[in-house]
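re: ur question from yesterday

yeah so i grabbed the chain u mentioned. its 201 aa long if i counted rite. heres the sequnce exactly as i have it in my notes:
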Amino acid sequence: MIDGNKRLTKKINNILKIGAELFSKNGYAETSMDDIAAAVKLSKGGLYHYFKSKTELLYYIVDNFMDVVLEDLQEELNRIDDKLERVKRLIYRHVERYPRCIAEARTLFHDAHNLPPKAFNKIVMKEREYDRITANVLSDYFGSSLSKNQITAITFILLGMCNSIYSWYNPKSPITPEQLSEIIFNILTDGVCGLQQKNRQ
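ran it thru and got these structure tokens back, copy pasting raw so excuse formatting
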């Protein structure tokens, strides 16, 4: 079993990566610890040395993914003075990181509900922290022209656009992450511009 206070080793990271790929491809319920042990070239007992259950493995996959998503995010945004550039950076960072962790993202969105309540709530708290940071960045940029409820709605619309890329975006496609993030930014700001005009009427 992993000590949660220790840095993840190369071996454990490999188990997490392969576990996420199997969950993403075959589904959590359909993937057994035997399947994972064979894929990582360990005996079943060897796999249980690192993870006491499939549920624990699932937890570490999605928890580690959320740590990657949140890592230094607030500090990075704090270093950017321009409010528009903060929005652009938030979107680009999301678009750039997700394709590198597609299996983990799919596992989070499709399988996190299989976690026991206490573990699931820990993941939800990290997701809410990301939601909070996103809402604050948008609120700073759009200011008082939008209500709090509108900012909340726009936050989840933006996250919906960004999170959908794991299901279709290929980083090797002609559209680069920079271009994709610019498209998302323009759709967001052009749409909000129309909403702001209606608010002023």
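noticed a couple things. The chain is about 70% helix and 0% strand. also Residues 117-142 form the longest helix (26 residues).
anyway ttyl
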